Amino acid sequence: MTHFDDVLAFWFSEGPDTFRKAWFEKNDAFDADIRSRFGDLLRPARQGALDSWGASPEGALALLLVLDQFPRNLHRGQAEAFASDDHARAIARRAVLDRRFDLALAPTQRSFLYLPFEHGEALADQDLSVALFEGLRDIPAMAAPGGVIDYAWRHRIVIQRFGRFPHRNTALGRPSTAAEQAWLAAGGGF
User: Fold this and answer.
1) Which of 85, 90, 95 is nearest to 54 (CA)?
2) CA distances from 143 to 35, 123, 178 (A)
3) CA distance 71 to 78
4) How confident is the model at residue 1 (pLDDT cuts 50, 70, 90)?
5) What is the pLDDT of residue 62?
6) Which residues of 58-91 are buried (b: 16+ CB within 10 A; e: fewer)?
7) What is the DSSP annotation of 65-96?
8) How far does CA 51 lie from the centroid of its chain?
């Protein structure tokens, strides 16, 4: 049986505070590695079978990687990429707001406790995301232009403007508005 330490050792293989480009780019080899090592964790995690991992900072971090990051790697462009987002936000709320587990982790690790809020389509989640990421502003790597704080703000702006992420519309079977279509046609990036 996979332990949460296995997830952390894989994801943070270069150290707990080293940023890896593979995390946020399309990389078929990286996705295949996640699938072969951890693909069997996604369903039980979605069903709550791994919620006990959330009892410690490291376990909560690993569970959020399985619920929030791995689906985006394993199901790119499909509705299933977002199917565990609500569960991830519930785990993140307990870890960050109730237990302050984020303070026990390295800054780069903390960002993965905050990402479920950044991935939310409610403005309240976006506001929380920005507030949490802004708490990392004194860390130069986090505050750099194009860094995690910038991305938190960019996501919030999209939700403030559209009330949802237009780039998910096709995967989720949602029709796009004319304004969303124009934004997507213009690049629609973060």
Assistant:
1) 95
2) 32, 22, 34
3) 9
4) confident
5) 98
6) bbbbbbbbbbbbbbbbbbeeeeebbebbebbbeb
7) IIIIIHHHHHTTTSGGGGTTHHHHHHHHIIII
8) 17
Q: Which of 13, 112, 128, 18 is nearest to 64 (CA)?
A: 112
| Contacts by 80-84, CB closer than 8 A, 24 or more apart | 81/171, 82/119, 82/168, 82/171, 82/172, 83/46, 84/42, 84/45, 84/46
pLDDT at 92: 98
Note the pLDDT of residue 16.
94
Cβ–Cβ < 8 Å for 38, 7: yes
Closest CA to 117 of 99, 139, 95: 95
Question: How much is the CA Rg of the chain, to the nearest whole Å?
Answer: 16
Confidence grade of residue 165 (pLDDT, cut at 50, 70, 90): very high
End-to-end Cα distance, the chain: 37
pLDDT tens digits along 55-104:
999 999 999 999 999 999 999 999 999 999 999 999 999 999 999 999 99
Q: What is the pLDDT of residues 118-163, one digit of tens each?
A: 999 999 999 999 999 999 999 988 888 889 999 999 999 999 999 9
d(Cα 162, Cα 3) in Å, to the nearest integer? Answer: 39
Which residue, 18, 123, 23, is CA-closest to 73? Answer: 23
